[in-house]
Structure formats: C-alpha cells, structure tokens
Design goal:
The chain is an alpha+beta fold. The protein folds into 3 domains: 145 residues, Creatinase/prolidase N-terminal domain (Creatine Amidinohydrolase, Chain A, domain 1); 148 residues, Creatine Amidinohydrolase, Chain A, domain 1 (3-Layer(aba) Sandwich); 294 residues, Creatinase/methionine aminopeptidase superfamily (Creatine Amidinohydrolase). The chain contains 22 helices and 27 strands. It has a 6-stranded mixed sheet with strand order 4-3-2-1-5-6, with helices on both faces. The protein is globular.
Length: 648
C-alpha cells in the first residue's frame, strides 16, 4: 500500500480526501479483515442437521447450495461463502445438494484433489464432474428422491436459464423445483461474517479513459434500439466499470455490492446510501451524471414499479431468477449483458494502462524468481513464505493496491492440484527436487495482472522437460496465431492442446479467460474454452484481453502451467481474410520462460525464434525498471535467463 498511498497524496485536492478510503480499499482487498464471531462455529454434522430440519419445515426433500452470490460472482465475499460454510470446500466453483439422508458436492477437475482433501467424507460425497460414471446433479436428484418430492433453491442464487432447465428435468421425473423466500444456509449460519461496508473510491479519468456519462449514453442508445424503457444491471464489476467507482466488498476484487437501473431519464444506484458521501457525489458531478441512490434491498420493489409502468426491461442472462420472475414475458428482454460486452473491449487508455501495469508486475515477478533461486537452499522457503515474498515485491511497485487473487504457490505434487492454495496445514518446503508453479497477480490503479510460470531449480527429468515443452508449444502456437475478427475461443483452445494431444496428454481446465482493468481477474467475455455453449461467446475482438494458459498435471507428482495475459491487436500481415481484417495476440506479460525446462529438440525453428524474440522484449522492457529499483543482481539474473536458445 505504500505506493498507492503515495499516488493518492499526489492527486488533486479532491482525491486527497480519499487517502483514508484508498487505504481501506487496500486493507480489505488484501484480506486484512478481522471478523469477530459471537458464537462457537458449528460442526459439519450440526450444520447439516439444522439445514435438514428447516428443509422438513419447508417441505423440501433436497436443497441446492451453489458457490455464487446474488450477482453471479465467481469470487464471493466471506459473507456469501455458503458453499464453504456447509462443506468446508474453498474452491471458487461448485454446487452442493443436501438431501434428507445424503449430501454431495459437485466440482470440476480443477478442484477434484482439493475437494477430496477438504470434504468430510463421513457426511459428504464428492462428485468429480467430467469423470465417467459420475452422476450429474440432475441424475442424482432423480435417483435419490421419491416421486412427488420438492427441491428447494434460493431464487437469488440461480439464473432463470438454469431454473427453467432444471424445472423441466425434475418435472419429467416427477419432482418439483421450488424457490424459498429465506436461504436455509443463512438461517443456520450462527457466526456469519458481516458484509463489508468500506468507503467507495472514484477511478480517475486518467485510468478509466471514458466518463460515466459516455458509458450511460451508449447504454441509452441500446435502449432506443431495442425499444426498451430501462436496463437492470446486476454484475458487480459491470456497475463498478459503468460508474468508474471501485470498492472492497470482495477480497482482491475492487467491487462493491450494488444494483443499477438505467432508463432514458434516470440513473438509479441501489447500495448502502451511507457510502454516497460528498466525495462520491462530487465524482458523479465530474463524470457528468445525476444518480438517485436507493437502498440495496429496494431493487425488487423498483423492478415491480417499472413493470407497472408497462415498459420493457432489459435484463442479463446472468441475472437471478428473482429478477426474471418479477417481469412478465411480454415486458422482458433478456440478453447477454450489454455492459459486460462493452466493458470487455478496453479503450486506448485502459489498454495502455494494462501494458504499463504488466511491465511493473513483470519486475516484481522477476525479482521474486531471482530471490527464490538465491534462497531456495536455505531450507526456509515454503509455499506460503514464497507467496508472501512475491507480494512484498509487488507492493513496492507504482500504483499497487492489492493482489488480484490468492497466489497459487505450489511445489511438487501440490502443483498437480490446479487451483491449489497453500495453507498452514499444507505448506510445503520449496527445494530443487521438483517443479515449482507460481500463479499470481496484482491489482494496480491502471490494470489487473495474472501470470503463471513453472520452474525447476534442480535437474528436471526427461518427462518433465517433454511435458513442459509440449505445454510451451501450445502456449506459443496460441500466442502467435493470426485470425479473423470474432473468431471463437474454441479454435484457440484446440491450438493450445495439440502438442499435448499428440502424445495422449491433456489438461482439465479452460485455456483462457478475460481480465478486467483494475477489476476482476476473471472477466467474461472473452473466453478460450472447448465449448461454445455460452451466450457470451461473441468471439475475440480488438482490445479484448485474455489469458493464454495451457498446462499439464501429473497426479501426485508435479504440475506445469504457463500463463500470459494477451491483448487482441491488429496483425501486421499482408492478408486480411477477404476484407474482414486480421488480428493477433500481443503478450502483455513480461516474465521469462525457464529455458532449462525446454527440450529444444521438440521445438521448431519458428518456436525457438518466438522464445528468443519474447526474451529480448522482456529484458528490454523489464531490465531498465530493475536497474531503476536498484535490483542490479536481479537484472543480471534476468539477462542470463533471457539468453538466446538454439536448436542443435
């Protein structure tokens, strides 16, 4: 926080008022929140017993507990970690179903090993999604519940699309999906953390690049085009982007709890009114907007009023069923979020800020990797202490605010757990005997970063080098491809896997996710995945930003992942796909790739050239900053790491 404080002090008189607020954002985003619980935590058995008692009171035979909050957020606040409370599973994606006689958790391959370690097998059954013979949630409900049973859900925690799909499936099997007015987990959660309510922080135009009034005007053009009277906005990052505001309600993600409604003559913001102080009102004036503030919980009442006025309302596919059910079909226009689609294409100021933030972030990671190499033999460097040291190197970079997520600092077999995060119980010593994977990122005023590197500080095995090189080949193939605008992410996903598929290897996660500009580390669209089912699959467009992150994971042995944040840019080529234009990727991430792990004999001359060109740029862009920070030894280390490789 030293640099973000320094930055705030250097602003105009208006932002000088915000020093305390900015520090509060940094504290909360960094997880320095110390909740005080009034009651002793319940055991898993007690929690399940209490939920089942309420299920019987509400005449439901099963209850669904998803990982999301009321805004469909992937990462949720401590206040909303219902899935973690009932299961002890801390992953960001999963769904639990509690029946009267059984309980099961479904999660994807990223979390299979983690969930296995965290679940109490006496009370929970792990359903490893994607594996053969593992029943789907639908099949499990149909098999385990007697005909005529009701399945309960919270209408704020399920999308209308999923509610409709599941209702049809259950109805065909003689079951019924119902919504309950009160969330059953909330009702039994005796030591629930309070909701964070720190001050909001305006984002200066030199970082946002576009005033809120311009963004609102664009939305109103959409209202006119679609003959709608208003749009309801539920995504927290969408609201933060639209109003050029940031908050700290979710750890490491600078958002705040709110809903918004924009009509042709009004802008409504539903949040805690106490947060709208004179600083925020001045911000609204400077952004050229007049905002009416309502209580957060007034959103349904306002939707009902708009419905009674007989206008048409636009809602996002990601909105809750609670919203959807309030709007008659003839007044409802449901689309993939218009705000998310606009936000995904960064303006020139945001794009330039992302590049600058990644150079500073690259310096932090280089300093860490050099430090790690110098200190690994001390016998004192563990996954946790290593991650802490990396955060220290980030914290001294200009414009740093917080981490963008909890670092995946994983050594040896722990790296085979795709989204592993070390705890006091699992913390492992980092040595020269295996591969170390570090996936981490930072939140800066001018951008968000996310980078993964896998390194071996000893002597890698032949198989480890082959696996790394095949991951690298996919990484380079995706990063250097030229493609027409709006190409689906599916094509790039296959490119990244090809070299692994050639020898029967694969990985069980997507290849790329969008990323925000001082917003969420995961942002959609875009996405690079093997499926095109998502309604947000709009294809890649210029100035979208995505991760490029293929990997390979050998269970109980090691894990490998390489990740850059890439920007979609115009390609410098002669062809243009018959007038459609040509795009390619520019790697914003500037951190060396460990050449020791490369089996150059498996690489083409072109791939060798790509690595060498990239390393030239890393040294050119990061080197001067290291010298400026008087990290001379790190500079020397970087120069060695970026020396050219050659095919023999």
């Amino acid at each position: 926080m030293k640099n973000s404080k320094k930055y705030i002090i250097g602003l105009s008189a208006l932002l000088i008022i915000l020093v305390g607020c900015g520090l509060a954002v940094g504290r909360a985003l960094n997880g320095d929140d110390n909740y005080e619980y009034d009651e002793t935590p319940k055991t898993v058995e007690q929690i399940l017993s209490d939920v089942r008692s309420l299920m019987e009171d509400n005449s439901v035979a099963a209850y669904i507990v998803p990982s999301v909050d009321a805004h469909s957020s992937e990462y949720v606040s401590a206040h909303d970690r219902r899935l973690q409370y009932v299961t002890n599973f801390t992953g960001s994606a999963g769904t639990a179903i509690i029946a009267l006689q059984a309980a099961a958790l479904w999660t994807d391959s990223r979390y299979h090993l983690q969930a296995e370690n965290q679940l109490d097998s006496d009370h929970w059954t792990l359903m490893r999604e994607g594996l053969a013979d593992v029943p789907t949630r639908d099949d499990w409900l149909l098999k385990n519940l007697p005909a005529g049973s009701q399945v309960g859900t919270d209408p704020f925690l399920i999308t209308p699309t999923e509610f409709d799909r599941l209702s049809r499936v259950l109805s065909a099997g003689g079951l019924r999906l119902v919504t309950l007015e009160r969330n059953l987990v909330d009702s039994v959660w005796n030591n629930r953390p309070p909701q964070i309510n720190e001050p909001l922080i305006p984002l200066d135009i030199k970082y946002s690049g576009k005033r809120a009034s311009e963004k609102i005007a664009d939305l109103r053009d959409e209202l006119t085009e679609k003959k709608a009277s208003a749009i309801v906005i539920n995504g927290l990052d969408e609201i933060a982007w639209l109003f050029n505001l940031r908050g700290s309600d979710i750890r490491n993600t600078p958002v705040f709890f709110a809903y918004a409604i924009v009509s042709n003559d009004q802008i409504l913001l539903f949040t805690n009114p106490e947060r709208i102080n004179e600083t925020i009102r001045a911000h609204f004036r400077s952004e050229g907007i007049t905002v009416t503030v309502r209580e957060y919980d007034d959103i349904l009442a306002e939707i009902k009023e708009l419905v009674e006025e007989h206008g048409k309302l636009i809602i996002a596919t990601s909105c809750s069923h609670a919203f959807y059910a309030q709007i008659p079909a003839d007044q409802r226009i449901q689309l993939y979020s218009l705000v998310a689609t606009k936000r995904a294409v960064k303006n020139s100021v945001e794009a330039e800020g992302m590049r600058r933030a990644h150079i500073r972030d690259g310096a932090a990671v280089v300093r860490y990797l050099h430090w790690l190499e110098e200190n690994v033999d001390s016998g004192n460097v563990t996954e946790l202490s290593g991650a802490s040291k990396l955060r220290e190197f980030r914290s001294v970079q200009q414009n740093f605010v917080s981490l963008s997520f909890t670092a995946i600092s994983a050594f040896g077999s722990n790296a085979a757990i795709v989204h592993y995060s070390p705890t006091e119980e699992t913390d492992t010593l980092i040595t020269r005997d295996n591969i170390y994977l570090i996936d981490s990122g930072g939140q800066y005023w001018d951008g968000t970063t996310d980078v993964t590197r896998s390194v071996h500080m000893g002597e890698p095995t032949a198989f480890q080098r082959e696996a790394f090189t095949r991951v690298l080949k996919g990484f380079l193939s995706l990063g250097s491809t030229v493609f027409p605008p709006k190409t689906s992410g599916t094509f790039f996903d296959a490119m990244a896997r090809r070299a692994l598929w050639d020898v029967g290897l694969d990985y069980g996660h997507g290849t790329g996710h969008g990323i925000g500009s001082f917003l969420g580390v995961h942002e959609y669209p875009p996405s690079i995945v093997s499926s095109t089912v998502s309604p947000g699959n709009v294809g890649l467009q210029e100035n979208m930003f995505s991760s490029n992150e293929p990997g390979y994971y050998e269970p109980d042995e090691f894990g490998i992942r390489l990740e850059d944040i890439v920007q979609v840019v115009k390609a410098d080529v002669r062809f243009d796909f018959a007038g459609r234009g040509a795009l390619t990727f520019y790697a914003n991430t500037v951190v060396p790739l460990q050449t020791k792990l490369m089996d150059v004999s498996l690489m083409t001359e072109h791939e060798v050239e790509l690595v060498n060109r990239y390393h030239e740029r890393v040294l050119k862009e990061v080197g001067p900053l290291l010298l400026e920070q008087e990290a001379n030894e790190a500079y020397i280390w970087l120069a060695k790491q970026t020396q050219a490789i050659r095919k023999v």
